[in-house]
Automatic annotation (TrEMBL):
It comes from Streptomyces triticirhizae. CDD domains: Ferrochelatase_C, Ferrochelatase_N. Its EC number is 4.99.1.9. Fe(2+) binds at H191, E286. It catalyses: Fe-coproporphyrin III + 2 H(+) = coproporphyrin III + Fe(2+). One of its GO terms (cellular component) is cytoplasm. InterPro entries: Ferrochelatase, Ferrochelatase_C, Ferrochelatase_N. NCBIfam families: PRK00035.2-1. Pathway: Porphyrin-containing compound metabolism; protoheme biosynthesis. The keyword Cytoplasm applies. Keywords: Cytoplasm, Heme biosynthesis, Iron, Lyase, Metal-binding, Porphyrin biosynthesis. This is Coproporphyrin III ferrochelatase.
Length: 375
């Protein structure tokens, strides 16, 4: 038992996520929320709306977050961690601003935030910090005293994340016919983002082609590939590809696209692949549609054997990792020097985003970082 002091000085953990529609009528307003003020072509919106309608207008992401919260609550209780859990989203109810009002009403003054993105990028890191700043500013305008808000370090290279991904790959290999297993390649996937966003992802000293976004994914993929090689005794080829591109076709985004790459691999005579969505933390729409529906259909047409390995979701080892990260940060805030687990070559990420980290196209206030206008 870690004991009730373990999470001090924090008095709440806030799960901050993307949000998704919960029925057909929600799809369009949700997409309008997502794309407000961004240059997403109308046709792309209609196309993405159709993906949601294929699933009854329901994104799996909200249910996955409810499951994660329940698993965190159980894990915390089992380890004597007394930290109330809250949940707010960027694009759909429960909206972040409403959740922060509730936190204040409940008397919470020191909040630690866990976002459902494991890597550095504008969309996965700074934009969530901007969401926090916007919500805190609203509270202040309403005459409420905003709580102090911190954000957990990026967890893409935490042992409990990467070991869970590797275990999923090993299970997935078992789903291939035994004679195809040894030859199967690992095709890691993540969300494509504009090259210009990738280049400025992470702290300024790492800005340059691909930035921290690409470097972190390559580091994570390498660790997983090595674990799988050790466990199977087979060193197989691996690579990182991209999916879910949107935006104007004239603007360069990270490539190759997973579907294009599957075609090339088949043309080169490859027979089997494991698609590893290492860039995502749950089987939300980008996984269910862009991989399970579209990429697996591409593979099928090509006569390429393909299986998709699981995301970490609410796997107990990942949930334990989140608890470890919370306790680590709490200890750091108390002035202790806790162990900070990290696999791969890049070491543990910073606790506090420096100025210029994951820069956006325009400078907006962002909370929970060195440039936060809030305490
Ligand atoms: C890096 C990244 C992550 C991973 C990190 C993280 O998890 O945060 C992520 C996650 C997600 N993205 C999601 C959905 C969407 N993303 C869109 C648009 C965009 N994503 C981008 C990047 C990312 N997105 C970018 C650069 C755009 C272009 C517009 C813009 O600059 O903002 C659009 C608009 C239509 C379209 O263009 O596809 C939608 C509907 C959902 C929910 C899925 C569900 O409902 O289950 C999730 C978890
Ligand atoms: Fe997205």
């Amino acid at each position: 038992m870690e004991g009730v002091l373990a999470a001090q000085p924090y008095d709440a953990l806030l799960l901050l996520s993307f949000g998704g529609p919960e029925g057909p009528d929600d799809v369009l307003p949700f997409l309008e929320n997502v794309t407000r003020g961004r240059g997403i072509p109308r046709e792309r919106l209609a196309e993405v709306g159709a993906h949601y309608h294929l699933f009854g207008g329901v994104s799996p992401i909200n249910e996955q977050n409810r499951t994660l919260l329940a698993a965190l609550a159980d894990d915390f209780a089992a380890h004597g961690v007394d930290l109330p859990l809250y949940w707010g989203n960027r694009n759909w109810a429960p909206y972040l601003t409403d959740t922060l009002r509730q936190l204040v009403a409940d008397g919470r003054r020191r909040v630690l935030t866990l976002v459902t993105s494991a890597y550095a990028s504008y969309s996965g890191c700074r934009q969530y910090r901007e969401d926090l700043a916007g919500a805190l500013a609203t509270l202040r305008e309403e005459g409420l005293e905003p709580p102090r808000v911190d954000k957990l370090r990026l967890y893409y290279n935490h042992p409990g994340f990467l070991e869970t991904v590797a275990e999923g790959v090993l299970e997935s290999l078992q789903r291939l016919p035994s004679e195809e297993r040894a030859g199967a390649r690992l095709v890691f996937t993540t969300h494509s983002i504009p090259d210009s966003a990738a280049d400025v992802s992470g702290p300024p000293e790492g800005h340059g082609p691909g930035g921290a976004y690409v470097a972190q994914h390559l580091d994570a993929a390498r660790v997983v590939a090595e674990r799988v090689a050790e466990a199977t005794g087979v060193t197989r080829e691996w690579e990182l590809v991209y999916q879910s591109r949107s935006g104007s076709p004239r603007i360069p985004w990270l490539e190759p696209d997973v579907n294009d790459r599957l075609r090339e691999l088949r043309a080169k005579g490859e027979r089997a692949v494991v698609l590893v969505p290492v860039g995502f933390v749950s089987d939300h729409m980008e996984v269910r549609f862009d991989l399970d529906t579209e990429a697996l259909a591409t593979a099928d047409e090509l006569g390429l054997l393909a299986v998709r390995s699981p995301t970490v979701g609410a796997h107990p080892r990942f949930v334990a990792a989140l608890r470890e990260l919370v306790l680590e940060r709490a200890a750091t805030e108390r002035g202790e020097r806790p162990e900070r687990g990290a696999l791969g070559e890049r070491g543990p990420s910073h606790d506090v985003c420096p100025v210029g980290c994951c820069a956006g196209r325009v400078v907006k206030p962002a909370a929970a970082g060195a440039d936060s206008p809030f305490a």
